[in-house]
Specification:
This protein is mainly α. The chain has nine helices and two strands. Strands 1-2 form a two-stranded antiparallel ribbon. The termini are far apart.
Length: about 270
């Protein structure tokens, strides 16, 4: 539907920004939790569409319990919780008496889903909570605004001028022209954030973040497209008019989050 993409964005972005800036951190974490759970549900549905007996409800329970535990335990305990998820999924599959035929594929799909969203969703939460004072708010806003800008640049430039296909077998509509537009808007997004509310961001970190997000945001989108093409669907769902599903909307944000977190923890500002 024409204009549905813009209408959905205008409706949701103020809610997300309010959760990041004006409300307590737990509200933002709750929002990330909900998006991670819905995205995981859509990914498991894609696996099941392919005939893989990925246990849906148990995997979502594991993710739903362990994701808040990751945030409460902090970065030092994250590895242990990831190991727990890795071992819990096959045990659940075994005791739940799921089909033996296709067990390897079912366990692999469920395990990947749980670990992927524990890593990426966990990083999305830590972008807000792992830094002192208001720095976490600025890091999250920089992450989200820049990816949203890059995504918009890629979409509109690619739609208008795209002729040279980037990955026709995985995502037929993506073009190199769109990548160029996304890169330019990514650079603008970082510049805007640094100018308006993040002046203490070192220029070297700003430049590194620009390069990182210009590469990782479309890469995350393409990784998700692999699953959709394999399942023979265009979108992960039709929940969000003009955008598809929650997995379609969160793929770039979640995929890039661990890398951005690492950059800011290693090289970013601390006060």
């Amino acid at each position: 539907m024409k204009g549905a993409r813009e209408a959905t964005a205008f409706a949701l972005i103020p809610v997300v920004v309010a959760a990041i800036v004006f409300l307590p951190p737990w509200v933002y974490l709750a929002l990330v939790w909900v998006v991670a759970m819905l995205s995981a549900w859509e990914l498991l549905a894609l696996f099941r569409r392919l005939g893989q007996p990925a246990p849906q409800a148990p995997t979502l329970v594991i993710l739903g319990v362990l994701l808040p535990a990751v945030w409460l335990g902090g970065l030092p305990r994250t590895g242990a919780l990831l190991a727990l998820a890795l071992l819990a999924v096959p045990v659940v599959y075994l005791v739940g008496r799921y089909p033996i035929q296709g067990a390897a594929a079912g366990i692999a799909g469920a395990t990947f889903t749980a670990l992927y969203f524990l890593v990426t969703g966990g990083a999305m939460g830590f972008l807000r909570t792992a830094f002192v004072g208001t720095l976490g708010v600025k890091v999250v806003l920089l992450h989200c605004f820049t990816i949203w800008a890059g995504d918009s640049g890629a979409y509109y430039v690619g739609t208008r001028f795209g002729k040279h296909r980037l990955a026709p077998l995985v995502s037929p509509k993506k073009s190199w022209e769109g990548i160029l537009g996304g890169t330019l808007l990514t650079a603008f997004g970082v510049w805007f954030c640094r100018t308006v509310f993040f002046p203490q961001l070192p220029l070297s970190v700003a430049a590194g973040t620009t390069v990182l997000l210009a590469v990782l945001a479309p890469l995350g989108d393409l990784v998700e497209s692999l699953f959709k093409r394999d399942a023979g669907v265009k979108d992960s769902s039709d929940v969000l008019p003009g955008h598809g599903g929650f997995l379609d909307r969160s793929d770039s944000l979640f995929f890039a989050a661990p890398f951005v977190l690492a950059v800011f923890l290693l090289f970013g500002v601390l006060v």
